[in-house]
């Protein structure tokens, strides 16, 4: 892990698959994914959930950007057994990190021309912790009068997401709720095989699949959906300002997604990973002229 | 344990009490027989509820639309000839000696005596200086398990069909311990408490519930990859309970995986057991799948045999007193209560009457897409339930 982190510090950018955490091991063995995120201070996890035309889902026209605080909250890994049989797990919310993520959310919303930011919280119960988060969001919101700001309690949010997901635009939230909401939204637009995710810090950026699954049960069978990872790599290319290549590959991937015949098992089809990749490559190669212009 | 003939007649007696069969065993369904077996195998002595005759239940109508939906339920129960006597009590926060907030002593006494309660929505005024009423009730009766069966309602269309799962949420500790501190200015710490005792209690309850209600599997929902010690302890207790209930299948699943799969294919889930926060989120998510809080039943199980069934929607002050409310959630919670008491025949009749009325679409309240009054909807159900007798 240390070598990996050093390499990322050197290169500034990484593309990453999920590393399995054996949760039956003792607490001293931390999740390596979490260690990577906190060591590099990748404070913002960004996920763009969009309904894809070629994919059948129960809800249509979803276009939600989820911005999740990625370093603290419930993922602070601070636990102790004060008395035998009683475990305390600390959730840390800081003003600095809350302001930082709220600011990131509003700046991104403005950049992307989005109208509304919704803060997701449980401040009615966690009055101090989520209360602080909410307060920071409000403070930042006041500096962006062009963007509407509202808030919603997390349990109501999930209920709204499964009935009327179209009402959401940009959502910002602490770590754990981000975990829940990201997975709900990924499921709504078609599953873990489709949605890319990005982790941004001040200096470094790491790109991965949004729902961070190892997919152990389907590994090595040539049935995994490469879409999420491919789209993540396109996000990486955009980050590196290689926008031409990013668009080229992204369009090829989305074109391939429209072919129901090529859909992998997670989308209800029988296509293989290699078939999908071949198809993407073919679409790219057919655009020969465009490549030479890049 | 009884043997042979004694066992057989105990089963037949219980079935008769539940109004399920007059004579022949062959008219019974296997399901009903194993329900009885589940009851007989329970360690706890038979509560008074299983004795034939009228059973008194504490009714807390609540605020806003509470009184009108409670009347609706009472009317339907009367039409169904359910052997229930209602003892109405009001629950408000009062300050006892020493300034401690509590519920009125007559409400407490009634519930302690009757053990079973049905509750409508209670309002919690902001800045009232006292904790929420629901929290007070929870603490007073040690309501440790919140149980929400989520079943798709045939007449009420949502994007999800064939949902049939139950969320069992630990309701006393976890992230809702209410312990928070400001460490230094700008740094807040919220404490999530997981104890061996509470985890064991909820795990045992979940497996007992599965067994008593013919549910094939229990899934423990957790995030032990990140919260190794706390969720790890919770999981350990679930595993131990699983060992004691080998007839029920047990699996563990990450919270995020559950969420991901739940919105894609909820039919793969059966009984889910989890700590407080995940339970709060997931139970509301599942309610959303079947149509929202207006149609979702809920039950709270406490220590000492207390069980309070409730509707989980709000008080809807804007429609209160206008005969517009939808009593479905409270009614289905009352049906859950009947099942808990072993009155399966009456439960089935009332539930069928309710679902048939909704499926028929002729008389529906506004939130269900119709424009009938609450009283009209109630009367339609009463008529059907009388016809089912």
UniProtKB/TrEMBL annotation, chain A:
* Example GO biological process: tricarboxylic acid cycle
- The UniProt record lists the Isopropylmalate dehydrogenase-like domain at 1-280
Q: Indicate whether Chloroplast appears among the record's keywords.
A: no
Question: Which Pfam families does the record match to this protein?
Answer: Iso_dh
Compartment list? Mitochondrion
Coarse class of the primary localization is mitochondrion
Transmembrane stretches, start-end? none
- A Gene Ontology cellular-component term: mitochondrion
Q: Sorted alphabetically, which keywords does the UniProt record give?
A: Mitochondrion, Transit peptide, Tricarboxylic acid cycle
Q: How does it assemble?
A: Heterooligomer of subunits alpha (IDH3A), beta (IDH3B), and gamma (IDH3G) in the apparent ratio of 2:1:1. The heterodimer containing one IDH3A and one IDH3B subunit and the heterodimer containing one IDH3A and one IDH3G subunit assemble into a heterotetramer (which contains two subunits of IDH3A, one of IDH3B and one of IDH3G) and further into the heterooctamer.
**NCBIfam families, per the entry:** mito_nad_idh
The record's comment on protein family reads:
Belongs to the isocitrate and isopropylmalate dehydrogenases family.
Q: What is this protein called?
A: Isocitrate dehydrogenase [NAD] subunit, mitochondrial
What is the source species?
Answer: Solea senegalensis
UniProtKB/TrEMBL annotation, chain B:
Query: What superkingdom heads the lineage?
Result: Eukaryota
What positions does the domain Isopropylmalate dehydrogenase-like occupy? 56-381
GO MF annotation, one: magnesium ion binding
GO BP terms, alphabetized: isocitrate metabolic process; tricarboxylic acid cycle
Spell out the coiled coil positions from the record: none
- Its predominant location is mitochondrion
The entry's localization annotation reads:
Mitochondrion
- The name under which this protein is listed is Isocitrate dehydrogenase [NAD] subunit, mitochondrial
Look up and give the organism this protein is from. Solea senegalensis (Senegalese sole)
